[in-house]
Amino acid sequence: MSVRRLAKIQPDSFAFSKETRAKCDWWIAKYPADRRQSAVIPILWLVQKQEGWCPEPALRAIAELLGMPYIRVLEVVTFYTMFMLEPVGSAALIQVCGTTPCMLRGSGDLMKVCKSKIGPKDTLSADGRFTWQEVECLGACVNAPMAQINDYYFEDLTAETMGQIIDDFAAGKRPEPGSYAGRHTSEPMGGALTLTDAALYDGSAAKPIKTLPNSEPAKVPA
């Protein structure tokens, strides 16, 4: 894993919003009082949802809230790549999968579109609205190539559909996540090929069960 460092330019301060603090308290209450540090990951995530990234003053606030050394919070936030250590685009954070299945299916073309429309990867766009990254496997190989944009998966992409998605975000729209090849979840292209008999789902193929297995008490020998 590559070294991850905090951004050089940091805000002067951080404050939990009322909503974020309430959610933090909810997570802390899930653990014994002497194990409140166990809430560090969900609270880091809540901070990222509030700020868009994890600024350094927020790490100190989390350490104080959980009663744990600052270095422990820093260790966690720099280990997990889901935590952003620099500001990211306010409209869209685009994470393009570059692992083998997606690469074989054309993720390189998606990255070219991102570079053309946004700029270099891992860099905030000039207008501050977009960031794109190349990431490792996101677990949707059957729908390759794909990208995670903000919190959602966009699958079966092409250079054309990726370009349109970026344009839609730029226009303030909310593109629909999911497959862009028209398939349902991870069905084969063209639709399901097995288990297509409607009788499997309407109950007509089911046979009545007179006695449930092991439903009678065991007989005790006399």
Write a structural description.
The chain is of the alpha/beta class. It is 32% helix and 9% strand. The protein is built from seven helices and five strands. Helix 1 (18-28) packs antiparallel against helix 2. The longest helix is centred in the N-terminal third of the chain and has 12 residues, at 40-51. The radius of gyration is 24 Å and the shape is flat. The chain starts with 17 loop residues before the first helix and ends in a 43-residue tail after the last strand.
Keywords:
222 residues, alpha/beta, Arc Repressor Mutant, subunit A, Glutaredoxin, 7 helices, 5 strands, flat, iron, NuoE_N, monoatomic cation transmembrane transporter activity
CATH superfamily of the domain at 92-179: Glutaredoxin
Strand order of the largest sheet: 2-1-3-4-5
Quickly give the CATH architecture of the domain at 92-179. 3-Layer(aba) Sandwich
Q: Give the helix level as a range of percent.
A: 25-40%
**Beta-strand content:** 5-15%
State the end-to-end distance: 69 Å
Give the integer mean of the pLDDT values: 93
Computed over alpha carbons, the radius of gyration is: 24 Å
Major sheet characteristics: 5 strands, mixed
Question: How is the secondary structure organized here?
Answer:
Layout: H1 18-28, H2 40-51, H3 56-66, H4 70-79, E1 92-97, H5 100-104, H6 107-117, E2 130-135, E3 147-149, E4 152-155, H7 159-170, E5 178-179
Parallel strand pairs: 1-2, 4-5
Antiparallel strand pairs: 1-3, 3-4
Helix pairs in contact: 1-2, 2-3, 3-4, 6-7
Keywords: 2Fe-2S, Iron, Iron-sulfur, Metal-binding, NAD, Translocase
Family: Belongs to the complex I 24 kDa subunit family.
Cofactor: [2Fe-2S] cluster
